[in-house]
Amino acid sequence: MPSMSTGADALTDEDFREILAQTRTFVRSVVMPQEQRIAAENRMPDEITAQSKSMGLYGYAIPAEWGGLGLDLAQDVELAMELGYTTLALRSMFGTNNGIAGQVLVGFGTTEQKSRWLDRIASGEVVASFALTESGAGSNPASLRTSAARSGEDWIVNGEKRFITNAPLADLFVVFARTRPADADGPGISVFLVPADTPGVEVGPKDLKMGQEGAWTAEVRFQDVRVGPDALVGGNEDIGYRAAMTSLARGRIHIAALAVGTAQRALDESVAYAATATQGGTPVGEFQLVQAMLADMQTGVMAGRALVRDAARAWVAGEDRRIAPSAAKLFCTEMAGTVADLAVQVHGGTGYMRGVAVERIYRDVRLLRLYEGTSEIQRLIIGGGLVKSATRR
């Protein structure tokens, strides 16, 4: 398959259609046949990693001027719906480069920081990892305890992070740390670029998770880690919280699209099973209650796809970068959980067996309601945002 990289050239509609077509072919002809292998070995095959790099997937959301494909969020979600059709470990492999880690640099890094890192992030030479979550600070980063203190011109970082996606593979950690107590000027959170080979950085063993085999997470400890002044993102101590919130909000729309893609796969598997599996000599798809389940699944997928596209459009237009991302993530990830559950039900006992796609999907999608902010956090953002908007009128 030819490379999808467009370099510094402007991305045309025709280019984007080709990117989508190549991604769909890659997902369905290369990755899907290896889903069971990926699950059994809990790793992505090297040939899939290499092909993902050659296609430009490690930098699809990085601007073209920094070596990426330059997809905006409206295009990103179309790609994410294709990537969600197979094991979520595929998207996870390059998701932090394009998403929550890479976007911190894109949106808030200095020119020097972008020049040093973004080309290598976009090519996949560097895997960037977003180090925010702690044992006492997950969906609400305002309570994080990792600290960074000045030592001359340098900074000394201390703390522990957990559930850090791609930590075992990371070359660069985008680390959020408290540089002062929260005060009237802000939350006191900064963000630092910490190479993984910096003395004092220790990555724990891979987490053993319910699902998403092949997508690696781990704890990361920072013990007296010394970094220079050029490690402070944006050269500004006060942008950490805003960088985290902006990156997470954008990521919520992406995760919503991923959920739609996964739900579509569960639906397609269920329709195919219902059309061919028989009970008493009759295809189970002819039973009205099975048809009712398929109808609910189809309705959820269609509603989710429309919501994701609308939320992405509003983000790109600058109309809504707070409530719409949370609404999309809340609805689509909850929908994907419901669809996955119905898919197992349509399959009956077969759907509970390892090696059956809907069994894997059932486990994989459960995490979507937790990361990038739990469903409960999304409800608070939506409800609180609506009330604030009303009180400002």
Overall pLDDT, averaged? Answer: 96
Q: What is the chain-wise order of helices and strands?
A: HHHHHHHEEEEEEEHEEHHHH
Output the strand order for the largest sheet. 2-3-7-6
Question: Rg, please?
Answer: 21 Å
Low-confidence stretches: none
Largest sheet: 4 strands, antiparallel
Helix content: 40-55%
Total beta strand runs: 9
Query: What is the CA-CA span between the terminal residues?
Result: 54 Å
Give the helix tally: 12
Strand content: 5-15%
* Overall shape: globular
Q: Which structural class best describes the helix and strand composition?
A: alpha+beta
Detail the topology: elements first, then pairings.
Elements: H1 13-31, H2 35-41, H3 46-55, H4 73-83, H5 88-98, H6 102-108, H7 111-123, E1 128-131, E2 147-151, E3 154-165, E4 172-178, E5 189-195, E6 201-203, E7 217-227, H8 240-276, E8 278-279, E9 282-283, H9 288-317, H10 323-347, H11 357-364, H12 375-391
Parallel strand pairs: 1-4
Antiparallel strand pairs: 2-3, 3-7, 4-5, 6-7, 8-9
Helix pairs in contact: 1-4, 4-8, 4-9, 6-8, 8-9, 8-10, 9-10, 10-11, 10-12
Kindly describe this structure.
The model has no long low-confidence stretch (mean pLDDT 96). The chain is globular. The protein is built from 12 helices and 9 strands. It has 393 residues and is α+β, with helices and mostly antiparallel strands. Strands 2-3-7-6 form a 4-stranded antiparallel beta sheet, with no helix packed on it. The chain has a 3-stranded mixed beta sheet with strand order 1-4-5. The N and C termini lie far apart (54 Å). The longest helix is centred in the middle third of the chain and has 37 residues, at 240-276. A hairpin with a 2-residue loop joins strand 2 and strand 3 (154-165). Helix 1 runs parallel beside helix 4 and helix 9 runs antiparallel to helix 10 (323-347).
